Amino acid sequence: MRDETANEDLRYAAYCTLHSRYRRMRDHQKLKVLTAQYEEWFRNHPSAEHFSLLSYVDMGDRIDGESVLLRAEQSITLMRETAGSLHLLADLTARYYEENPQLLTAAPEQAKEWLGKAIRAVEAAIAKDNYAKFHYTKARLLSLQGQHEQALKELEIAMDREDSGRADYAIRMATYMSEKIRIAAMKREEDLRLSMQDYITQIEKKQDDAEKNIEAQMGKLSDSTVKNLEFLGLFAGIISFTVGGISIVSGASAFSFRGAAGLLIVLMGALLEVFCGFGVALHGLGKEKEYRYRNLVVCGFGLAMIALGLFLCEGL
């Protein structure tokens, strides 16, 4: 029985070794054959689920739903929170949202939750084993969160920490460089979008300022037009008063100088009252304090002059 157990452990160790080698060398065909032949054989092994999930990472299998992420989350417990199991959850989460970017906006709260779990998992993995690939996965997750600047820094760490003596060094460096170019392009696109948004905001602000300025100028023009109408009415009244007053006074002066003066003063008061009424017609009653005060003063002077003129004419 002991020999059978030892042989089983040896076979599983050989399976894991080949599985890891094929994955690192990106030999997907051999990896598929190996998995198809021995996956069920070692199904009850605690780490079998972990190696099964790795097929989604290394053979490019599409992640159909969150069930795969849930399996990866459960695998962490089975693997006793090893660095590899923690990183696998992070890697699968990154792949899931890279394959389904529409979910970042269609289900933002769900995406935020999974990305948060993945970031915490990969940081825990880095704390256990400061492995270059872990920083690469963290960079992908940060990029999905829109933190492109920090993602580029994590990629630099991954490239610096990668072991140049590894057989798959060139493959990994090419992968990191490709991801760096992709994230840098996304950062430039985001910066351009923000710049365009800022430019549009400035244009809209200038447009609003221009509209307000036009409105203010139109208001000033309207006030100027009203004042011109007032002055025009006043001048017309003065002309009418002058012409009519001269005729009336010249006729009345033949009888009484005092009466002619009183009549002239009455006509001046009447002219002021007409001017006051013209102002009320243009501005209304009490809309603006300036016009209200002026109308009251003009009306008061007009009434006073009419009263004075009538007083002079009294008794004649």
Produce a short descriptive summary:
This protein is an all-alpha fold and 316 residues long.
Overview of this protein structure:
The chain is mainly α and 316 residues long. It has twelve helices and no strands. The longest helix is centred in the middle third of the chain and has 84 residues. The chain is rod-shaped, with a radius of gyration of 46 Å. It starts with a helix and ends with a helix.
**End-to-end span in angstroms?**
150 Å
Q: What series of H and E elements makes up the topology?
A: HHHHHHHHHHHH
Quick one: overall form?
rod-shaped
Q: How confident overall, as mean pLDDT?
A: 81
What share of the residues does DSSP label as strand, in percent? under 5%
User: What is the number of strand segments?
Assistant: 0
**Helix share bin:** over 70%
Rg over CA atoms: 46 Å
Fold topology:
Layout: H1 2-24, H2 28-38, H3 48-58, H4 66-78, H5 83-99, H6 103-106, H7 108-128, H8 132-144, H9 148-161, H10 169-252, H11 257-283, H12 289-313
Summary keywords:
mainly alpha, 316 residues, 83% helix
